Amino acid sequence: MFRSLIPILIILTAHGMAHAQAPAPEDRDLPALPPAPPDQILDEAGLLDPSTRAALREHVQKLSQQFDVKLFIAAYTLLPEKDHVRARRLRMLWGGDSRSVVIVYRRGSQQLTFSANGHIDTFIPTRELLLMYKDAVTAARTFETPRERILAAVETLSAAIIRDLTVRDAKRGFFTAEIFTLIAAICITILVIGGASFLLVRRLQLRAHKREIGCVFPEVTVGRRLGAPFGGGTVAGMHFAKSVQTGQSSDSLYPSSQTRTVPTADRA
Q: With helix as H, strand as E and coil as C, how does the chain read?
């Protein structure tokens, strides 16, 4: 019967940091909050013994170091504000723009309150986070003392987050953002080098082909007319210039020592 008194209040905020940093109107008259503890555990109610605190610290450090998720724990006896308001304020102050979750436990109501910022949604959907919170509360209900409930909730939640992120990392495999960027850079480099090599080879092939098909045009010379009024003829010669591709003189249509006389009509 005593265990059934543990309610759950889940607060999920998906606002951007510009909105998250601005205090809500109802927060302006509330007392200032302390800075985040070095071990991310605040025990104003004096509920945690050294062994429980050490176990909580182990879960907190594992999430932070391996998965970049900050888990904050705060235990109070009484609060001047509602539990969800305190959890939201702590998350805004302690979590900042990091992926963070805050667990608030109030001894007077034996209530667990969870608050997560919108950045964690990029890794774990909100629907799955809600299920994780419910599982954490269910685990806490199986214990009698407050420190055992807090430890059970933290153990269950951290294990669920680790399990979920591990599965997602395995599905992604090698196709992380860094690997994809590296593969894209390598492909672009290969395309650039291959294109430049193709253009160079093609240019050399065209140059060789041009040397092979060089054209030679004949040169024609026509001398002056000799004795045309008296029935003479015109002397003309034709020969090829030096070959473009070999640099040697080609055979002339008519040797230079040979002339051809083009007769003109005889005068009557």
A: CCHHHCCEEEEECCCCHHHHCCCCHHHCCCCCCCCCCCCCEEECCCCCCHHHHHHHHHHHHHHHHHHCCEEEEEEECCCCCCHHHHHHHHHHHHHCCCCEEEEEEECCCCEEEEEECHHHHHCCCHHHHHHHHHHHHHHHCCCCCHHHHHHHHHHHHHHHHHHHHHHHHHHHCCCCHHHHHHHHHHHHHHHHHHHHHHHHHHHHHHHHHHHHCCCCCEEEEECCCCCHHHCCEEEEEEEECECCCCCCECCCCCCCCCCEEEECCCCC
